[in-house]
Amino acid sequence: MENTTRGGRDVEVAWLDSLDRAARRVLGVGLVLMALSAVGVAGQALPEELTLDEAIVLAKSNNPTFLSTANDQAAANWQVRESYAQFLPSVTTNLNGTWQEAGAQRLGAIIFEGASTDWAYSSYSVNFGMTIDGSTIFGVGNARASARATEARISSEEFNLESIVGLQYMNTLRAQDGVDVAQRQLDRAQQNLQIVETRVSTGAVAGTDGKQAEVDLGRAEVALIQAQRDLRQARLQLSEQIGLPMNDDVRLSSEFEIFEPGYDLDELLGWSMEQHPSLASFRAQEGASRAAARQAATSQYLPSINLFAQVRGQAQQALNDEYVVDQLNRNVASQVSDCQFMNTLNNGLNGGLPGYTPENCNSFSVTPEQQAAALAANSAFPFSFDRVPMTAGVTVSLPLFTGFSRERQVSQANNQAEDAEHARRAEELRLRTMVTNAYDNLVSQYQVVQAEERNRTLAEEQLLLQQRRYALGAIDLLVLMDAQTTMSTADQAYLDAVYEFHYSLIVLQAAVGRPLEAQ
Fold first, then answer.
1. Could you say which of 3.30.1050.10, 3.40.50.2000, 1.20.1600.10, 3.30.43.10 is the CATH number of the domain covering 16-77+151-299+404-512?
2. What would the pLDDT profile of 365-408 be if each residue is shown by its tens digit?
3. How far apart are CA 430 and CA 118, in angstroms?
């Protein structure tokens, strides 16, 4: 007889809605609200038939907890790029604009009276800077190790999600088969009630036998209601792990067989130690911690070199054109005054000033061309900058004594690296124990399935025999009820054994770190 999880279902649940209509109505409202919210976020819906592989793929794209971990990879990659960019100069630019109201200008206790005007100032600066120290040199290795640790952690979480979805998928199938078991128990209770009512109607047995059969039927109805509730809750939990709403129309279509485990324990342990995603994550984290320790141990004692350069420009404009023209006239008047003074001095000296030729002071005057040129030169705001000479420099600093803060930081970094190593060793020990126990459970559970299958077959044969004997009046009702109870117990025990086998296989795969084919 072939053992399958989904086989042997010969009774349809035809009256499911009428039995639990109120609860289903409440659940339906909840699912509608859940679907509306989820569609807005994910914009996706589950197919009518859902395999385990499809459920895992959907969970990787929609499970919020996993997605919140997976998005860490982008930041880790940018951290690597940033570490390389530390060898390039940083560039910043500034642009400034200022307005100054007209009025007397003050310089300390000195007040400059006279003509004034509103002023507009603008300036720019481009700053180049670069710092090279121990953090820059060892930052690349540290960032790359951190990125690998992040990638390994995401892979570990992805594998954990596959295991969790597999367990919940199996749990939903178990609840679904539990409804079938409860339905078969109800059908048998109805058959027993018909047999008892037939004998009561003929007067072969007392009417109390019929009441007892009705009680047994009522218990079977309660068991079916509870099984239906368990199925709804299991579907909701699976929906939560997938990250998408699941309505009652979605059918789980994967089937799983029972097989005799033929794995080699040493081979399973080797796979787990070599390629388990969780262990790879711990090893990557250990590498990142050691890279951080190396950076701390060396960078704290290396000199720091800071290079900088600045290019600047500025523009200044008087906002009153009359002020510009007045300043031009003042300059010309000053030139005329200087010319007249020099001519007078030359004429007053016997023989004149050596090498001086008297000038025509009337030649100094403001021409329209000069006035236009002055106004054009004043129109500098905001972008007609005059370049300021560039500045550049270099600073070298070497820490000599920092109050033992360097020693403390190095010690902390080394401690974290040692903690990461201990955590990795603890994970190895945990996986070894987990693989050994999981394999032992799988082998034992296979034997339990075989025994429970025999028990179920015998219980079914015994129930059919007792039903015939009761119909002939060879036994009383208690013997029939006892056979019914034995059959229900055997049916449920077989279902539990089958799914415990599948659970053990999933746990073994989670411990090994890879899917396992039937052997």
1. 1.20.1600.10
2. 888 888 888 888 888 888 888 899 999 999 999 888 878 888 88
3. 79
